[in-house]
Amino acid sequence: MTPFQRYLVLQRRVLRGRALGTLPIEPEDALLEEMDPLWYSMSDGERAMIDASVQDVPHAPAQLGAVDTDPSDGTYRRAA
After folding, report:
1. Which of 2, 31, 55, 70 has a 20 to 30 A CA-CA distance from 44?
2. CA–CA distance, 18 with 23 (Å, rounded to integer)
3. Rounded to whole angstroms, how far apart are CA atoms 6 and 43?
């Protein structure tokens, strides 16, 4: 798996976990630490593709059926 592919897998896991409120803080930190060196090992073009792919992420929680249960911290939980 290339750094670009690995980064996308980790990014998807983090974004989905945030959107659904299912990713505890500690595992998220570990994933982000693993993603950091991958980011810098990619080409500018690969980084641009990733940036472009997450432009609409703020809308993702609603699209996944999640609701903002605590506006003060921006966490989302799946709607009941």
Report:
1. 31
2. 6
3. 14
**Cα 53 from Cα 25, distance rounded (Å):** 23
Residue 68 in tokens: 């903002």
pTM of the full predicted structure?
0.53
Contact call for residues 77 and 22 (beta carbons, < 8 A) = no
User: Taking the domains of the chain in order of start, what are their residue ranges?
Assistant: 3-78
Digit-coded pLDDT (tens) for 27-36:
777 888 888 8
The alpha carbon of 35 is separated from its chain's Cα centroid by a whole number of angstroms, namely 11
